[in-house]
Amino acid sequence: MRTLYAHPLSGNSHKVRLLLAFLELPYEEVTVDLSHGEQHSQRFMQLNPLGQVPVLVDGKVVLRDSLAILVYLARKYGGEAWLPGHPAQAGAIVQWLSLAANELHHGPHLARLHFLLGVDLNLAAAQEQTRQVLRLLESHLATRTWLELERPTVADLACFPYVGLAPEGKVSLEPYPAVRAWIDRVKSLPNYPSMPGLEPSMPGLEPSMPGLDA
Ligand SMILES: N[C@@H](CCC(=O)N[C@@H](CS)C(=O)NCC(=O)O)C(=O)O
To answer: Residue 112 and residue 73: Cα distance in Å, rounded?
Structure first.
């Protein structure tokens, strides 16, 4: 029995949904009603004392944190494909998990929270952080198809949701063609699951519509 506690608008939940789908692992998704505070209920806090989604329950294993769950799923079910054991390759991939936890959290994640939930925060700083990361990604992806190893890995899955959702924080993706092409590549992977704002690419259409700067 495998259960993902998640929310439809949560980019962190989507990271896990992506790998579950790509690994073709059956699971039940339970929506935690964040808008009514269900994440702070006694029942949910037993699963994650931080009161956040996603949480994965896989048999006896209970894990919080999207990145921890990606590592677990990749190593348990993905062989060497999504997170290889080779030290230098694993290190190269974990660099991007760290970027997801830090720069992408403080950039596009927070900018989006401001517009989605009206959270009072330093919007200009979050948007500037977003542009800094997008410049880094654009330069990195200009000569690559995927973030590491020339194949999709958990590095791509960790970074993809909040980069793809940057327009919801009113940061345009228009100046970053290599990033937009990479977003479309992730969306074109077999079994790609949709989420609002990150719908699958339609074959034959132009690469994803960039948003507009505020
Ligand atoms: N480091 C965590 C962050 C999880 C997180 O921020 N979850 C948000 C949704 S994307 C949440 O549950 N927020 C509800 C709250 O903080 O009350 C991860 O990567 O999973």
So the answer is: 27
pLDDT digits (tens, 9 = 90+) for 23-67: 999 999 999 999 999 999 999 999 999 999 999 999 999 999 999
> What is the CATH superfamily name and number for domain 2-77?
Glutaredoxin (3.40.30.10)
Domains in the chain: boundaries:
2-77, 87-187
Contact 20, 27 (CB under 8 A): yes
Q: Decide whether any atom of ligand 1 lies within 6 Å of the 54 Cβ.
A: yes
> Which residues are paired to 180 by β-bridges?
none
- 48 CB within 6 A, ligand 1: no
Q: Is the pLDDT of residue 211 over 60?
A: no
Three-class secondary structure of residue 132 per DSSP: helix
**CA–CA distance, 204 with 106 (Å, rounded to integer):** 34
| Domains 2-77 and 87-187 in one fold | no
With a 6 Å cutoff on the Cβ, whether 130 touches ligand 1 is no
Give the confidence band of 201 by pLDDT, cuts at 50, 70, 90: confident
CATH of domain 87-187: 1.20.1050.10
